[in-house]
Specification:
With about 210 residues, the protein is an all-alpha fold. The protein has one domain. About 70% of the residues lie in helices and about 0% in strands. Helix 8 runs antiparallel to helix 9.
């Protein structure tokens, strides 16, 4: 199918004309995703360098280990927000194909940020923001999956893994077949980023929510 990135011009060129625009969208979304909000929020609130505490991760779960729920909530909303903004802006300007490309770009930026030597977060909040922007009901279903797992097992990483695993299923349930591939790809990346957590879960040593 011909991408809709040139819909404002009326013409429908092929991929040979569209790919430079899609590449530009990917790069722009990547740069947005690279903004390390967890680090920025922690330093702004006088909590120090979040990379030097807990797991060293820049995500909301590790920010919570500073003892500041406000900083963790702000990080969660900002990391999720950049995922949603990238998708929504790309869709508004250039259509659904561009929205998916933007979703991939912003996610890659978060887990491999240019500004931090490609050492970023694990992508869960950004992933949920992307899903909410692509299809609100799918995003809500994924969020509820995370919440149910977290309340049951009290392990944030396990909730993230189950949430990621459920996303392609929810996309299929809501008949978003053209987006399922993106869901699968992002879920695989989340599982890869959680490999150390997976080993600790299997060993029974993974910290529970609220504990270091």
């Amino acid at each position: 199918m011909v991408p809709s990135v040139f819909r404002f011009w009326g013409a429908q060129p092929g991929w040979e004309a569209a790919w430079p625009w899609l590449l530009g969208i990917l790069i722009a979304a990547y740069l947005l995703g690279s903004i390390p909000f967890g680090l920025i929020v922690s330093k702004f609130m006088g909590l120090g360098d979040v990379r030097k505490i807990g797991s060293g991760n820049i995500g909301a779960t590790n920010v919570l280990r500073t003892g500041s729920k406000k900083a963790a909530l702000a990080t969660l909303l900002l990391d999720g927000g950049k995922g949603a903004v990238a998708v929504l802006v790309a869709r508004y300007l250039y259509g659904d194909t561009a929205a998916q490309v933007a979703g991939l770009g912003v996610f890659l930026g978060h887990i491999f940020p240019l500004y931090l030597g490609f050492k970023g977060g694990k992508g869960v909040a950004t992933f949920l923001g992307i899903l909410l922007a692509i299809h609100p009901l799918t995003g809500i279903a994924a969020c509820l999956t995370w919440l149910a797992t977290a309340l049951t097992f009290r392990i944030s990483s396990l909730a993230a893994l189950i949430c990621a695993l459920s996303a392609p299923f929810w996309l299929w349930v809501f008949d978003l077949n053209t987006t399922t591939g993106l869901g699968v790809l992002l879920a695989v990346l989340i599982w890869m980023r959680h490999w150390a957590n997976i080993k600790r879960i299997a060993a029974g040593t993974e910290p529970k929510i609220g504990k270091n």
